[in-house]
Design brief:
This protein is an alpha/beta fold and 330 residues long. It contains 11 helices and 11 strands. Strand 2, helix 3 and strand 3 form a beta-alpha-beta unit. Bound molecules: nicotinamide-adenine-dinucleotide and (2S)-2-hydroxybutanedioic acid (LMR). (2S)-2-hydroxybutanedioic acid binds next to helix 9. Nicotinamide-adenine-dinucleotide binds next to helix 5.
């Protein structure tokens, strides 16, 4: 059974110098709002020795900038010129994809589908051709649909490994820690909430019953769940047309990347909730679902069930599954 406390450890692993490993990490969309701070955080991660930054434009500038930071990794920036995408991907262990357009106020993540589906699909073709064994972390929205799209591309190329494809839902996890600490007046760094389902609105299901705050008043709990489900909207509204979450997302993406690297390097008990090709609800037609998984040298090592949850959470999961099924089919 997974322990929420173990997830907490993941937050602190990444800047530790105690276990130095050798991994090439590639960021596709590295010049973007997420891509730039994510590249910075990866440059600070001692597990990363080779950092490849690719974007349609601007990635060499980001690479030159972060390359002056005195950590061990070498950094190189690539654009489509000179076969840049293939070069950025060759030999990569972990590929992180935040390429794509973000929401503006009034839009849902689903409204991004038409633009981002083709961007992500074309990048997935390049990953299949150049780094077919890499672990792939998808940030581009709508995650509930972009992850299944990548799986289809990889299948069509004959290189699909369900253990190495991850939809990044870590932002929901870190938001849940922060928001619950505001309600309970506690230290957010010590709050761990398991968040399952998908990554949009009602498909995001925080399991408050598994925390010490399970007996909080119903209206407080309902408001907390709603805030976690729609936290992305707060940022989109506040940025007022200038995009969506970037800095908190980079923090979340760096944590997930670090956990995947920790698993690859053989560290034990590395657990993160993530949106994967998941056996839990396949019999009901829900092919992908986010639940806590133990990460290991081959990617997903073990998928954990949800265990005992409250009747209210059962209802939330039921509703989430109905929407997820449609998002995945799309
Ligand atoms: P942005 O517009 O600031 O950056 C996107 C970058 O992608 C740009 O630099 C652009 O040049 C690049 N790009 C576009 N097409 C590309 C291609 N074919 N190859 C390489 N690069 C390409 O957007 P952002 O704020 O960084 O957000 C990026 C995506 O992440 C959006 O889809 C957003 O909705 C999503 N997002 C997901 C989460 C999550 O929790 N999973 C959180 C926040 C944002
Ligand atoms: C988020 O949760 O902040 C991201 O998915 C971006 C968005 O569109 O809300």
């Amino acid at each position: 059974m997974f322990s929420a406390r173990r997830q907490l450890v993941n937050s602190f692993r990444q800047f530790s110098t105690s276990a130095i490993n050798n991994y090439k990490v590639t960021v596709l969309g590295a010049n973007g709002g997420i891509g730039q701070p994510l590249s910075l955080l990866l440059k600070l991660n001692h597990k990363v020795t080779d950092l490849a930054l690719y974007d349609l434009r601007g990635a060499p500038g980001v690479a030159a900038d972060v390359s002056h930071i005195p950590t061990n990794s070498t950094v190189k920036g690539y654009t489509p010129e000179n076969d840049g995408l293939a070069q950025a991907l060759k030999g990569s262990d972990v590929v992180i994809i935040p390429a794509g357009v973000p929401r503006k106020p009034g839009m849902t993540r689903d409204d991004l589908f038409n633009t981002n589906a083709s961007i992500v699909a074309s990048l997935a073709v390049a990953v299949a051709d150049n780094s077919p064994n890499a672990s792939i972390l998808i940030i581009s929205n709508p995650v509930n649909s972009t992850v299944p799209i990548v799986s289809e591309v990889l299948k069509s190329k004959g290189v699909y490994n369900p253990k190495k494809l991850f939809g990044v839902t870590t932002l929901d996890v870190i938001r849940a820690s922060r928001f619950i600490s505001e309600v309970a007046s506690t230290d957010p760094t010590k709050e761990q909430v398991t968040v399952v389902g998908g990554h949009s609105g009602i498909t995001i299901v925080p399991l408050i019953s598994k925390t010490v705050h399970k007996d909080v008043a119903k209206d407080t709990k309902d408001a907390l769940i709603h805030r976690i489900q729609f936290g992305g909207d707060e940022v989109v509204k506040a940025k007022d047309g200038a995009g969506s979450a970037t800095l908190s997302m980079a923090t979340a993406g760096a944590r997930m990347a670090n956990s995947v690297l920790a698993g690859l390097s053989g560290e034990k008990d590395v657990i993160e909730p993530t949106f994967i090709d998941n056996p839990l609800y396949k019999s009901e037609g829900v092919e992908f679902f986010s639940s806590p998984v133990t990460l290991g040298p081959d990617g997903v090592h073990e998928v954990h069930g949800l265990g005992t949850i409250s009747a209210e959470e059962e209802e939330l999961i039921k509703t989430a599954k109905e929407t997820l099924k449609k998002n995945i089919q799309k």
